[in-house]
Amino acid sequence: MTLPSFPIATTSIGTDQPPFVIAEMSGNHNQSLDRAIAIVDAAADAGAHAVKLQTYTADTMTLDVDRDEFKILDPESLWFGRRLHELYREAATPWDWHDAIFAHAKSRGIIAFSSPFDETAVDFLETLDAPAYKIASFELTDLPLIAKTAATGKPLVMSTGMATLAEIDQAIECAREHGCGDLVLLKCTSNYPATPESTNLRTIEHLRDSFGVQVGLSDHTGGIGAAVAAVAMGATVIEKHFTLRRADGGVDSAFSLEPNELKSLVVETERAWQALGEIRYGSAGPQQKSLIFRRSIFVTRDVEKGEVVGPDCLRIVRPGHGLTPKNWSRVCGRTTNRKLTRGEPTNWDMFV
Fold it and tell me: Under a CB-based contact definition with an 8 Å cutoff, are residues 272 and 304 in contact?
C-alpha cells in the first residue's frame, strides 16, 4: 500500500523518504536545563530529525497520594517501589525550559515537539507553535486529549502500546473527527525495557493495511536491531529514548541510546530504507557490469580446422565472453570452420 507523504515542519514522512528518527528526551535531562540543551546538540550531531519532550507536571499526571494504587509494585519494573507522583516529579521537563529547548533545536536545524499529557499542556505547546503532537501509549484511550490535539490541525503521532484494534480505531476516528489530517501510528511495546521477542514487528504492516496511515516504531529494546528491521517492515518513523550516557542514570537511562548508537541508528535505518528499493530481476543498473563474470564456453586447446569439438577441447569457465552454458549440448559435436586457439571464447561463427 502506497500512502501519501506529509511534512512535520520541514521534513517529510513517507516511504519515499528516509525514516524520520525521533530522539525521545523524556526524563533524561536529569533536571538540568544545560543537560537538556546538550541532549538536543547530541541528537542533532547524530543526524536525528527530531527531539521530543514530554509536557506534564506530576500533578497533571497523578495524585500525590501514599496508597498502593499510586505505587509501582511490579518487582520486575525499573521503578519498583516508587510512588507515581514522585517518579513524575523527577522525570518532568519544567515548562519554563520548553521555549529555550525549542529555540535551541531550531538553531541546530532539528525539529522539537512534545507529548502533551493533558489539555493545559496542549494550550501551552500551542503558544510555542509546536509543529506536531505525540500521543503516548498510555494516553491512547484518552479521547478528550486526542480531540484537543487533533483540533490544532497539526500532525499527530500516536503510540499503540497495549491497545486493541478497537481502541486504535476509536483513537483514529476521534482524531479524524476533530480535524487531524496527517497521522502516524507507532507500534509500541509498553515494557521498559522491552525484549525483542515481545516487539512483534509484523504488526507494523497490519496496522498500515488496517488503517491506511503511515506507521512506525516506538522502540524500547536495547540496541538498534529492532528499529532497522522495522524499516524493512515498512516503518517510516522510528522513535528511541536518548541520553548522553546511560551511566549518568535517570528514570529512562537503562533503555536509552547513547550518541554513537543514535548515529548508527540514523545511518543503518536509512541504509535499510535504501535497500528496500523495488521489485526487480535481471541485470539492470550496476549489475550490468557483472554479467561478464558469468561462465561461458571456452576453447581449452588448439583445434584444427575441420575438427569435431567436444569435452576434450571445450570447458565452461569464467568469464562470460563465450557462448552461454545452456548451449553446451549444441556446441559439442560441431565441426570447426577455422583453426581455434586455446583460451578463445566460443561463438557460432567458428563452426560449420
Answer: no
pTM for the model stands at 0.89
d(CA 31, CA 202): 37
Lookup: cell for 260: 554513537
d(CA 151, CA 119): 11
Angle (CA) 251-252-256 rounded to 5° is 155
Q: Which of 31-40, 197-206, 263-272, 278-287 has the lowest mean pLDDT?
A: 278-287
Q: Coil, helix or strand for 220? A: coil
List of domains in the chain: 14-56+92-276 (3.20.20.70), 285-350 (3.90.1210.10)
pLDDT in tens, 49-89: 999 999 999 999 999 999 999 999 999 888 899 999 999 99
* Residue (of 20, 227, 256) closest to 132 by Cα position: 20
**C-alpha to C-alpha distance for 213 and 21, rounded to whole angstroms:** 17
Residue 7 pairs with which residues in a beta bridge?
A: 12
Q: What is the pLDDT of residues 226-246, one digit of tens each?
A: 999 999 999 999 999 999 999
Q: Hey, which residues does 303 pair with through a beta bridge? A: 340
